[in-house]
Amino acid sequence: MEFRQLRNFIHVVELSSITAAAESLNIAQPALSRQVKALEQELQVTLLQRHGRGVMPTEEGIRLASRAQSILEDVQELAEELSGSYAPLSGYLRVGLPPTVAEILATRLIERTMETYPEVKLQIISGFSGHVQDWLVRGKIDLGVCYEGQTSPSIRSQPIIIEQLFLVQSAAQARKADRAPIEAPKALMKPLILPNREHGLRQCVETIAQKYAVALNVVLEIDILPTMLAFVERGLGSTILPPVSVINQVRAGRLLARPIVRHPIDRTLVLMSPLNRPGSRLSSRFAKFLKSEVQSLVTTGQWPGTTL
Asked: Which residue range is the domain that position 183 belongs to?
């Protein structure tokens, strides 16, 4: 296996076509086909599914392209360090974040980018996980952070953290017994205020409810986080959220965040980048920077209820 083979294979996956990749790389199409075949024989797996419009990577092909991209980026970064040509990052970068993640990460990411990479112009766009994935596939953003779920074959996903979900209730209306940890089925039976079914959080809660055969009692559907929390604070229902989303209200004594025990409810946050178009040096380096900032928030306790 050679770097050249890996680089060319990534190009095939990005363009979904051996012919188009061969033209772009300025090599003969049969030669590129032989390189892919050699990789398949060496790894003893099928990497591409051929169809009338081109090719589509198999699950193994996606994994190879994702790992190969990381390897090639590390090699390039090492070469820059050794040669002394480590140029500062510059350019325009668009990052998509879900609302609950934006609450904790957006300000931190913008401030740290201004400090560390002053020549990078960062734009943060907030939307549901499904929207973030769609923006990434269509090229409207360069990197996306969302909660693990169904993804396109054109997306490379890297798990970042596991986030625990808590039952959030009004502190003013809570009885003494309501302040203790609660089991998942009992939490799901509460009158709940949740976002609509397009939201990744709602899908996660409904999946867990089906697992425990609990019929959800959704009294309000609200997609705006501050509005949702305002109604919870007034005692019109409870909600299920990561503790970081309500950390200020809990510290102020307005809300309670009760751990869900015995059968905890959690979700995995992933960093996504596109496989259907060439990645830039800026986006690959910034992806590592973003992960390091998340790690710092977790290890210093600023992102509670999470595990790396």
From this structure: 166-264
Mind listing the pLDDT tens digit of every residue in the chain (308 residues)? 788 888 888 888 877 888 888 888 888 888 888 988 988 888 898 888 888 778 888 888 888 887 787 787 777 767 766 665 556 777 889 999 988 788 889 999 999 999 998 998 999 998 877 788 888 888 889 999 988 765 667 788 888 989 889 999 998 877 765 778 889 899 999 999 998 887 778 888 888 888 889 899 999 998 888 899 999 999 999 999 988 888 889 889 999 989 988 778 888 889 988 876 666 778 888 888 999 999 998 888 888 777 87
**Any idea what the CATH number is for the domain that residue 15 is in?**
1.10.10.10
Same domain for 154 and 272: yes
Structure tokens at 131: 């929207």
Q: How many helices (H) and strands (E) does the chain have?
A: 11, 14
CATH number at residue 227: 3.40.190.10
Residues 75 and 100 in one domain: no
Q: Which residues of 224-252 are buried (b: 16+ CB within 10 A; e: fewer)?
A: ebeebbebbbeeebbbbbbbbbbbebbee
Phi, psi of 146 (to 5 degrees): -155, 180
Same domain? 246 vs 275: no
Contact between residue 269 and residue 164 where contact means Cβ atoms under 8 Å apart: no
**Total domains, the chain:** 3
Predicted structure pTM score: 0.67
Residues 153 and 273 in one domain: yes
